[in-house]
Task: structure prediction
Amino acid sequence: MNRLPERHLSGAAVEPLPPSLPPKRESLDGVTVRLEPLDATEHPADLFALSHADESAQRIWDYLSYGPFPDLASFTTWFAARAESSDPLFFAARHKASGQVQGMMSYLNIYPANGSIEIGHIWLTPPMQNSRHGTEALYLLMAHAFNSLHYRRLEWKCNALNEGSRRAALRLGFAFEGIFYQHMVSKGRNRDTAWFSLLDYEWPLVQANFQTWLVDANFDAEGKPRQSLGALNGALRPH
Result:
């Protein structure tokens, strides 16, 4: 069975220096989903409706530093400002089968000289949660960061109380690095932040697991996966 090597401290020279490129406002196209640069005229209506439909849908805002919003107008104003940002650089996730825009995510903390980048501001509305296209959307960001932009470190950070996000990071192949206590204040509350990362030399085995998981043959007639991505990636790490 393939396993990732254990990480170790190193002061080795980095030669050549990271050739990482800043991400651009461009679409990333997958089989079931397409990531699109934010469009304040095209994307907000679906996202607002799906993320504010009821109390259950609004749970996606619990651990974010913004939202929920009182109405579509205020959401659209907030959304338009996000569309202008380059770090974070936001994407809307469009489910190809339905045509709906069902989620948002971004690159942030972008440091090309260090070869380090983060994916975050991830919120998926109920139709996208625990779905094949939700996982593929995150895979598109991860693959683009490593394969096209040539980063050597990909980060995932979340509120340490957000067990769902912590489980998601491990399922996607990230390694837990620790907790930054009293890291920030969010919505007037203390936030301890859990840090995860995935490194360039770890990516090929993690990518192979994504490719195994995403194929049509892995899904039954109801769209449920036959294999667990979390189990595939969990088996890669010695601990």
User: Anything to note?
Assistant: The mean pLDDT is 97.
